[in-house]
Design a protein that fits this description.
Strand content: under 5%
Number of strands: 0
Bound molecules: fe (ii) ion
Order of helices and strands: HHHHHH
Distance between the termini: 28 Å
CATH architecture: Up-down Bundle
Helix content: over 70%
CATH superfamily: nmb1532 protein domain like
Radius of gyration: 17 Å
CATH class: Mainly Alpha
Length: 189
């Protein structure tokens, strides 16, 4: 799935987007803002998946979960966490934090994969096969995702701001850009 998402992202992002990765920690904060919008859209769909705007909302959520979320989780798991593991001091408590966040990533992945088929149905103007189950799954995902975002915005990203060196940030930005098919540029080291 990550390969597909990366290929899609490559098609979607042009070289002009390279500047977005000069400040990778701020990029991650912005992604978290987008994830809050996705949670709100999911809750609207849980309330009424037959509403006039439901197909539009479902398309927004589906696009994010299929293409952006896997990239975001990979940014954290494959690049940010290893850098912080190297830089954090024992008193930062990063070992416990990363164990919690990684286990939530695994659970989240299972949860959002279960939402894809019902969302596709709504995009096509149909009702999900089991609307009650979909509503419960959508609400649970939104609640857990907001809790996860709270940990990351409140603890993880502030720690990254404190501990990552300029070279770490350049490496992180470069890797995140490459994951989206945007290759090495002098702007991001
Ligand atoms: Fe995140
Ligand atoms: Fe995360």
């Amino acid at each position: 799935m990550r390969r597909t998402a990366s290929a899609t992202a490559q098609a979607q992002h042009g070289a002009g987007d390279i500047n977005r990765f000069r400040h990778p920690i701020e990029f991650l904060f912005k992604e978290h803002d987008r994830q809050r919008v996705i949670c709100a859209a999911l809750e609207l769909l849980a309330d009424d998946c037959g509403a006039d705007r439901a197909p539009e909302n479902a398309a927004l959520v589906l696009g994010y979960l299929e293409h952006e979320m896997p990239l975001h989780i990979a940014d954290e798991e494959e690049d940010l966490f290893p850098l912080l593991t190297r830089r954090c001091a024992p008193e930062d408590g990063f070992e416990d934090l990363v164990a919690l966040l990684s286990s939530e990533h695994e659970t989240d992945e299972k949860r959002y994969l279960a939402l894809l088929a019902p969302l596709r149905a709504i995009v096509n103007g149909l009702r999900p096969p089991d609307p009650v189950q979909f509503a419960a799954d959508a609400r649970t995902f939104a609640v857990l995702q907001r809790r996860h975002l709270g940990w990351e915005n409140g603890t993880l990203l502030p720690l990254a701001r404190r501990r990552l060196t300029a070279a770490d940030r350049a490496q992180l930005g470069r890797k995140m850009a490459e994951r989206r098919g945007i290759f090495r540029s002098p702007l991001i080291g």
